[in-house]
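ok new one. same drill as before - structure tokens go in, u give me an amino acid for every spot. 83 of them this time. try not to just spam alanines like last time pls lmao
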């Protein structure tokens, strides 16, 4: 019996391969969320302007990435329509 067949059979029997597939699916989900959020930040004009402004401030050393991310998130999620 080929080594890969033995590996596949044991992995299937033990549930290892199914668990690995679930881990891969979760990882793919997280990657897609990150991609979609980045697209959202770049395509909504009001948000894109703020996003670019924060990027500039970070590159100029005027604020930390953590501060900028927090502030941008707060601006995006405001319920009073200011953004």
């Amino acid at each position: 019996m080929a080594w890969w067949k033995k590996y596949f059979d044991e992995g299937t029997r033990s549930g290892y391969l199914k668990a690995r597939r679930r881990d891969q699916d979760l990882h793919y989900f997280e990657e897609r969320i990150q991609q979609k959020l980045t697209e959202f930040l770049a395509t909504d004009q009001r948000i894109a302007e703020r996003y670019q402004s924060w990027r500039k401030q970070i590159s100029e050393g005027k604020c930390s990435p953590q501060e900028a991310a927090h502030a941008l998130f707060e601006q995006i999620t405001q319920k009073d329509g200011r953004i």
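The two ends are 64 Å apart (CA to CA). and btw The mean pLDDT is 90.
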